[in-house]
TrEMBL record:
Pfam families: Bac_luciferase. GO terms for molecular function: oxidoreductase activity, acting on paired donors, with incorporation or reduction of molecular oxygen. Gene3D superfamilies: Luciferase-like domain. Residues 12-293 form the Luciferase-like domain. It comes from Rhizocola hellebori. CDD domains: Tetrahydromethanopterin_reductase. The lineage of its organism: Bacteria, Bacillati, Actinomycetota, Actinomycetes, Micromonosporales. This is Luciferase-like protein. PANTHER family: CONSERVED HYPOTHETICAL ALANINE AND PROLINE-RICH PROTEIN (PTHR43244:SF2), PTHR43244. InterPro entries: F420-G6PD/mer (IPR050564), Luciferase-like_dom (IPR011251), Luciferase-like_sf (IPR036661).
């Protein structure tokens, strides 16, 4: 059965926790803490301490901190949550790593593979803890964890075929990009995940906009589509769905200086509907059902790009009510 999972939003941590509690009461089985405006591990700690949900980082940037610190934080969260924690990792993009965090990025697939290997060696313990990699190395002597822990599932976020294949090879689960229609999952992702012959938990991330008016719901969702359409490297994704010209218009507008989260007006309703779950509750329920048999879970989040806080709150309240209806 398709699990319903939740990515909360809040201007304050108290508001975020309140939304997560309401989603739990509505029937969500897990909550994921993103890393952009907040620290994912801190947010996950707050969620774990205030709910009984499964909790994960969706995602924590794998290269922005040392593998050992990530391993320790995961062990602490595993302990705090009583085994409810899932470590979601992703590479991010080169510019984000370099400009925001001063972190090395290349080669991303090899670096992420070795980062995971180091994390698992720290979890396994022993003395010394050694990994002599070409991208990541560690040499820890005279250290022992004072208590057990560290069997945490690792989920990898991946878009390109090499990163998706890595998730299938070394991870316990895979997290999708926020724009992942069922056709992309079926035709591109699942074949790449299945190359290793291992079974991984498939979690689709989906921007979900629900309103009594389909038009209102689609306009709210258009902002997130416009945000990602402004990135030229997503050209193949939009072209495959028949929206190459629309994406080119968004990219051109972005180059004139329009902020990336203010491009929703260039996204037609058909494009918003192709890449998000938007519409009335009945329409969105059908869109969610389209993932049944392809994914194990759908992680639902309210639209935020280009919206005022009160609009985001209204969208999130409608999303929580949808979870109640679907549960």
């Amino acid at each position: 059965m398709l699990r319903l999972e939740f990515q909360p939003w809040g201007e304050t941590m108290a508001e975020l926790i309140d939304a997560t509690r309401r989603a739990e009461a509505a029937g969500a089985v897990a909550a994921w803490a993103p890393e952009l405006h907040r620290n994912a591990l801190v947010t996950a700690t707050a969620i774990a301490s205030q709910t009984n949900l499964l909790v994960g980082t969706g995602i924590s940037l794998a290269f922005a901190t040392s593998p050992m610190l990530t391993a320790l934080a995961a062990m602490d969260l595993d302990d705090l949550s009583g085994g409810r924690f899932r470590l979601g990792l992703g590479s991010g993009v080169r510019r984000l790593n370099a400009d925001w965090h001063g972190a090395a990025f290349d080669p991303p697939v090899k670096r992420l593979r070795e980062t995971i290997a180091v994390i698992r060696k720290v979890w396994a313990g022993g003395d010394p803890i050694l990994h002599d990699g070409t991208a990541v190395s560690i040499d820890v002597r005279g250290w022992r964890r004072p208590y057990a822990g560290g069997a945490t599932p690792i989920y990898l976020a991946g878009v390109g075929p090499a990163m998706v294949a890595l998730a299938g090879e070394v991870a316990d689960g895979w997290l999708s990009h926020e724009l992942c229609p069922p056709s992309v999952l079926r035709e591109s992702v699942l074949p790449a995940l299945g190359r290793s012959g291992r079974r991984v938990d498939v979690v689709v991330s989906a921007c979900c906009s629900v309103d009594a008016s389909s038009a209102v719901a689609r306009r709210r969702a258009a902002g997130v589509v416009g945000f990602y359409a402004s990135v030229s490297s997503y050209a193949s994704l939009f072209a495959a769905a028949g929206f190459a010209a629309e994406q080119e218009a968004v990219v051109a507008a972005r180059r004139t200086g329009i902020p990336a989260d203010r491009l929703g007006h260039l996204v037609p309703d058909e494009m918003a509907a192709a890449f998000t779950l938007c519409g009335t509750s009945q329409e969105v329920a059908l869109a969610v059902k389209a993932y049944d048999g392809l994914a194990d879970a759908v992680k639902l989040s309210a639209p935020t790009h280009g919206l005022a806080p009160d609009e985001i709150r209204a969208a999130q309240d409608s999303l929580i009510e949808l979870i109640r209806e679907l549960s």
